[in-house]
Amino acid sequence: MAELPGTWSVPVVRADFTDDADWNRIREWIAQPTEEGFGADVDFVEDRALNGLDEETIVAGYPPSYPHEYRHPVLFVIDAVAVSTPDHPVLVINLNAGVDARPFRALPQQVQAIQNNLSLANMDYFEFATSAGADGVFRGF
Question: pTM higher than 0.90, yes or no?
Answer without folding.
Answer: yes
